[in-house]
Each structure stands twice: as C-alpha cells, then as structure tokens.
Amino acid sequence: MKVSETFIPTLREVPGDAVIVSHRLMLRAALIRKLSNGLFAYLPLGLRSFRKVERIIREEMDAAGALEIKPTVVVPGELWKESGRWDSMGDALLRVKNRVGSDFVVSPTAEEAFTALVRDELSSYRQLPLTLYQINTKYRDEVRPRYGVMRGREFVMKDAYSFHTDEASLDETYQKMGRAYRRIFKRCGLTVIPVRADSGAMGGTGSEEFMVESEIGDNTLLLCKACDYAANVEKAGCKPDYTAPASVETPHVEKIDTPHVRTIEELCSFLKTDARQFIKTLIYKAVNVELDLSAAPGCAKLVQRKPAPDAPPVYPEAFFAVTIRGDLDVNEVKLAAILKAAEVVLAADTDVERITGAPVGFAGPVGLTSVPVIADETVTAMTDAVAGALAKDLHYTHVAYGRDFTPWLVTDVRTVVAGDRCPVCGGELYEKKGNELGHIFKLGYKYTKTMKVSYLDVNGKSHTPTMGCYGIGLDRTLASAIEEHHDEAGIIWPITIAPFHVIIVPIKYDGAVKAAADSITADLEKQGVEVLLDDRNERPGVKFNDADLTGIPYRVVVGDKNLAGENPRVEIKGRSEKDNRLVELKAAAEELTALVHRDLAELNQ
Ligand code: ATP
Ligand code: MG
C-alpha cells in the first residue's frame, strides 16, 4: 500500500492530556483520534493493528473450543433488572429508552445477555459444557476516562462465557482459557503477570487477572522475591508476623487520661511506645450486606430486604467496628468480600459518635456492644495493648484479647505491604503497579440461579449449570504493547501486531529509485509480506521520522547512490537496530521475507 493512498496524518505535537507514552504515540503515529472524552476513533493504521490483536484472540479462542457468536450491543433492560445489576451497576451503566419507552442497556459486559441466550436453548446435560464468546463493543460510563484507549468509555472486549454441569468441567475450561490467555499475550509480544485473586493461603483458583507492569497502573500487585506468588493487593495475604502467647499474664485493664490524643502517632509519642502496641478500631458502614447478621451484636433491629421470596435477606445498611494492630491498615476490599457487601466506607463522624458514645478517635473493642466487632487476626496475639475507651480523652492500657473483649468475627482484613512475608513460601514480598488486560473468573451459580437457568440430567432431574467468564480488552492490549515496546522516536511494534511488516522509503520516488522500490514492494507482497511504500514527495528526514514513529518492524531505504553501478543495493534496518545493512537489490525481497517469517514464527510459536 502507498502512503499517498491511505490516511496517516502523523503529528509532531499532542494535546497536554495525553500523558502516557502509548496515548501520545497512538495520536502521533495516527493510529487514533479523540472524538470526545473516552471516545476514540481508530484510523487506518491503528485499525490494522487492532484487527491483528483481534485475529490472534479469535484464533486462540477457537483453538480452545470456544464458539463465536454475534449478539447485540444494545440489550433489553429487563435482563439487567432480572440479574439485579440494573440497580447495582450504578452510573457506569448507559441506559437508553426506545421510542415506546422500553428500557435498554448499552452492554458494559454481557453475563446477562449470554445467560439469557443459553437459558432459552438449554434443555439437556448433553449440550454442556458450552463456551460462547464475542468480540464486541462495550460501553462503560467511566467516571474518569483517561490514558487514551487504556481506559475509554467505549472499547472492545472479547468476552467468553462457559456453562457446565459440574465444578470439574468448569475447572477444565477455566484452565484451557488460562492457557489461551497466556498464548494470546505472548503472541502480542506482551509480558504479563498472571495474578491469582485468592490469597494463596487457601489454595483456591477461582480467578486470575492478567496484569502488565505499568507506572500508571490502577492495581497494586504484591510479588514474592522467592517464588511465583503474585496477588492483587485487594486480595493479597501474608504469613503471620506475630505469635499468640499461650496464656495472658497482663495486669488488669486500666483507664488512662489521654487529653487531646486521638491518632496512633499522637498516642505513640504520648505513651512512648510503638504502633504495634495499639489496637486500632475503625467504624465502617457497609451497604447491601448479604452475610447473615441474625446473631450479630446490635443487629437485631436492622432493616432487611428480600430480593426474592426464597432468597436470604440483604441488609441495605449495617455498621461494624473493625480492630487491627496499630501499624496496619484495613483492606476495605477484603472487608467487603467478608461481609458480602456491595461497598464499605468509613462511617461518618456522627455515626461514630452514636455508635461509640465518644468523639472520633476513642473507639475501642472493650465494652463495645452496639455493633459487631470484627478483629483482624493480628489482634488475637495482642495481650497487653492500648485501645480507645469509648469516652473522650480516655484510653485503656493492658488490654488483652479474649480476656477483655471477644470479637464477633476473627478474620484477615489487613492490607499487605512490601516487606511482608509471602503466604506460600515466606519469601519477602515487593510491590509493583499493574494494569489489568484480562480476567478469567469462575462465576459459579451467580447468574444461572438468579436468572433461573436449568437443564435435565441423565435421570431427567433438573439442575442449575455453573458458569465461568473470561474477558480481554483489545484496546488496552494494543496500548500496553506500545507501552512495552517503544523508544524516543516512536513505536517498535511486535511484528505480529504491526500494521505493516516492512516500510519502503524511496529517497525520491522517481526514475530508477521508483522502479526498484516498486519491484521490491511487488516481490514482498507476492510472498504475503505487508508493505507500506512511502511514495510521498517529502524530505528523506521526514519520511525516516515517520517510519520510526509508526514503528514498522523493517525499513528499506532505496536511494540513487546505492542503486548506481554494477551491484545495485538497498539499505535494510530493523526498527530496533541502530545500523543499516546494505543488501543486493535482487536479494532484498527474499531476505526480508525470511526475516519477517522468522520473527512471526518466534512470537507465534
Ligand atoms: P478495571 O479494573 O481496569 O476497570 P475491570 O475489572 O472493570 O477493569 P473487566 O470487567 O474484568 O475489567 O473487563 C475485562 C477487560 O476489559 C479488562 O481486563 C480490560 O482489559 C478491559 N476494560 C475494562 N474497562 C475498560 C475501559 N474502561 N477501557 C478499556 N478497556 C477496559
Ligand atoms: Mg472497571
């Protein structure tokens, strides 16, 4: 293809809101243009790369036995009301009404649509397992779209959904998808960190996120220096760094005056001890709690809601006191998971005062009965601690777990940080920032139960199938490949997703140079090599800069000087190589073809 016949409006400057490398380069290399906040159009060069990512994903999904379908992007709102996500998705869900006032949703994901489709067709166990997928447009009304297509509002996702009679079958597909994902990212030239979402201590494998390291990553990952443990901080666990003493020989609890001392730091300097001696107590408000609170202190009169007649109750709002060793932080994602809550947030000051009977800063577990007390495991080892005394300017000393208070629940809610010990091998953990490219997840019965999917087993008995879901963002994958492969001059495409394999740069597209450039182009194209011929009447420097910027893996420079004489030659250079090589004009196409095939094979193997 000739540059003059396509549309590659490269840019020198980009707008100031393009702060990350991939966003800047995608704009400069004319891969994308912004239409509006979070909305991007792909131009011809960008679309070529995008289609290659798509092809790789499709090939690997097909090879793993998943079946592609093409559902719609606009989906009846009824399905989302059925699953409960019409309400719980909040403002991220783009809702529209048609001309007669019926509700629709612009798909942000498609569990509902696929579950409904399978529900209507499924009758027998013989139809299972079944894995369906689409590569399709998604819309999420992200609060803060940023970093170009990394976090857009409209984007394309490959999403697959699998349906099974039992856990073993689900696990088999889940493992297959995990292998397919590893191959997809390798073929796209990406180094991913597969992150298990369980804490590692339980050994479960219900979810795996595929992350790329990124300074602007939204996720904090904890990785072990000694083994392959990797976890999202939201779920990460660690080896205990405490031992509970066999018996408590602590003097009785004592109430002490701590005037104007509220924070752990202030207490530390006031009492001249360190934060590990304090039991920190925080009051949380949890929303839509599904955990059974019928026997929990202070919860007898809580308002309950029944989502369905035979469903367990949901508590729209409940308060909890969470205690943890003073040097640690509560992990709110872990807490929400334990409570099966949609959200947990720190309680407002007025709620804290109502619950603890004291101003903020004096909460403690001793004598606290108005709400359930949840203790982090670290607290179980604390037998001579300082804690708030539920009264202004007062604290308790010599507080012993089990003697002076007994929590409603003991669990792991600590935020693991660098330096903590790996839950698997005890090695030291360190942190990295990461971005999620893909996610595989065992959903279980979440949608098949609420949306009432069933099949008949061999004896004609009705069952609910179990389900898995598997997503990859195409735009983010493409942008991440640029993040990983670039230099100051531009993109350095992995050849599998490069818009073209070879760019031919004639110094002046005229006469013998034109003839040579055309003939190499024709020879390469005959071999299936994708060639961009820069036939513009521009200075060579401009063409070289654009060739570097657009990152095409091989550049061929055709010039008068090298063509002259008995042995006409052209210059070949790999995008990441520093120096040119001269090769004979008549051997150039063959050599380039071999290089391209070698590079493709290496990534695709
Ligand atoms: P994130 O935490 O980054 O918002 P998510 O957990 O919401 O991601 P999933 O719902 O698991 O993402 O979606 C699957 C994939 O879709 C993600 O791994 C990512 O590659 C892609 N994706 C999600 N949101 C966006 C977005 N706003 N822009 C581009 N890609 C996205
Ligand atoms: Mg999201």
Please provide a written account of the structure:
The radius of gyration is 30 Å and the shape is elongated. The protein is built from 15 helices and 31 strands. Helix content is 27%, strand content 27%. The protein is of the alpha+beta class. It folds into three domains: 3-236 and 431-482, Bira Bifunctional Protein, Domain 2 (BirA Bifunctional Protein, domain 2), CATH 3.30.930; 254-411, YbaK protein; 500-604, Anticodon-binding domain (Rossmann fold, 3-Layer(aba) Sandwich), CATH 3.40.50.800. The strands form eight sheets. Strands 3, 7, 8, 9, 10, 11, 12, 21 and 24 form a nine-stranded mixed beta sheet that branches. The structure holds adenosine-5'-triphosphate and magnesium ion. Residues 109, 140, 142, 151-152, 155, 157, 218, 436-439, 471-473, 475-476 line the site of adenosine-5'-triphosphate.
Quickly list its features.
single chain; 605 residues; alpha+beta; BirA Bifunctional Protein, domain 2; YbaK protein; Rossmann fold; 3 domains; nine-stranded mixed beta sheet; five-stranded mixed beta sheet; 15 helices; 31 strands; 27% helix; binds adenosine-5'-triphosphate; binds magnesium ion
